[in-house]
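HUMAN: Mind sharing a backbone?

ASSISTANT:
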Amino acid sequence: MTAATHWNLPVCERLGIALPIVGAPMGGCAGPELVAAVSEAGGLGLLGHANMPLDEMREQIRAVKARTSRPFGVGLLFPSGTKATPKGGEPPALPSFLAPFTRDFPAEGGPKARRYDNELAAERLEVAIAEKVPVLSFGLGAPPSAIARAKGAGMTIIALVGSRRAAIEVAARGADILVAQGHESGGHTGRTATLVLVPQVVDAVKLPVLAAGGISDGRGLAAALMLGASGVLIGTRLLATPEARTADTHKHAIVEMEDDNTIVSRCYTGKPSRVIRNAFTDAWKGHDAEILPMPSQWEMIEPLVEPAKRAGSLAIANWPTGQGAVLIEAVTPAGEVVRSIAADAARLLGSASGYLQ
């Protein structure tokens, strides 16, 4: 029994994939190389296009198509309850207590491009439709109008949820597949653990459900299926691959993490996000009242954090990372990661499980 075995699961049938593994649409990290590798291995790769200029987004979609003929998708953010800085407006000034960080990375001046408002997200959706991308993944909210527009264009809709209530609401809007993302996940995350959230969502909706949060190996996939999920969405494990477009310092930090060194903080985006704990997250202790709502918080700290991230600074930049990092021991090619997770889960479940054909 190998990873190449066809999995008899609704999510595989719906997405046209062989293995019940979807790569998370990690902004800035899930580029064409990673997405194509996941899809070529039999899973589904998702491009991270939450904050990307439209021309670059179009180029990345075409780069994936040049690398694989298999299904793939894009991930977009339509964050609810946000109000961006007006076009051409100046972002909020950095708080004075962050001044020490600007010694190594002086804040970049000048107006910044809009990144996280729903108007721009809608423009990105139009690019995906024009480029005939087959799958759309929603995070931080799934507006009915956006779902209707995507479904009208023939796209399959994957929507991330962090609660039973959200699952019921998004299912009623027309989503095809839900991702039940637990508290263990890297990046924006909710309060309920994967082990508790997944069966709640499975019981609440009549849709295929992907489990996410803390899943880094075949044991995690097997456990997710036992909870009633139809597959998994994996992020952090795919960061520790040569194809991921994240800094080598980040990959090294994941591999070397022996005890959980992550923290859930609003200091980077304004919404709770699990990142590697560092001097920057520590500096915000006692300053919660100064954190702005999304996307204003990101607009405020971007002039400092972006140059730090380009330099691979672990002390300042935001490095979304899940608690499953402690299970990752090496940087491994993405295709090998996907195939080994599926093969290990198949071995644990056995042919009598009914999941395999």
User: Anything to note?
Assistant: The CA atoms of residues 165 and 204 lie 9 Å apart. The radius of gyration is 19 Å. The mean pLDDT is 92. The longest helix spans residues 334-349.
